[in-house]
Amino acid sequence: MKYITDITNINEGMLEGGFFDGWPNPPSTHTHYRILQNSFRFIAAIDEDTNQVIGFITAISDGVLSAYIPLLEVLPFYKNRGIGSKLVKMMLDELNSLYMIDLLCDAELQPYYEKQGMSKAQGMMKRYYENQHGEL
């Protein structure tokens, strides 16, 4: 397993395989690549045997005070192996010079993120699920 942060080391073919599991309207592989490419920071976990991306985390930020972590995904086959926890730790370390790092998640995932050193907070959101695929 290796972890990378440089988009030049990833191509769209490395992103195939079942990301966005359970999403009713998931992004295409091309859109997924664009998400990584346009993120303030991303970290991808690569299976060195298959050269496939098996997990990733993204952050968007103003680069001054705040960042938001919109996506953490690990392929279903690779879950419960510590990959997601490693990605979160690496991203929090990467962003630790900022004042605030925010993340929204479903209530059942809050204990997971608390184990990663994050705290529960109140928040608001608006979702347009018809745009979940990310293609314009």
UniProtKB/TrEMBL annotation:
- Give the species: Bacillus salitolerans
Query: By what name is this protein known?
Result: GNAT family N-acetyltransferase
Q: List UniProt keywords, sorted A-Z.
A: Acyltransferase, Transferase
Domain named N-acetyltransferase: which ranges? 1-136
Q: Does the keyword Glycosyltransferase apply?
A: no
Instruction: Write the Enzyme Commission number(s) for this entry.
Output: 2.3.-.-
Q: Which InterPro entries match?
A: Acetyltransferase_Butenolide (IPR053144), Acyl_CoA_acyltransferase (IPR016181), GNAT_dom (IPR000182)
Mind listing the GO molecular function terms for this protein? acyltransferase activity
Question: Which PROSITE patterns does the UniProt entry name for this protein?
Answer: GNAT
Broad EC category: transferase
Q: Does the keyword Endoplasmic reticulum apply?
A: no
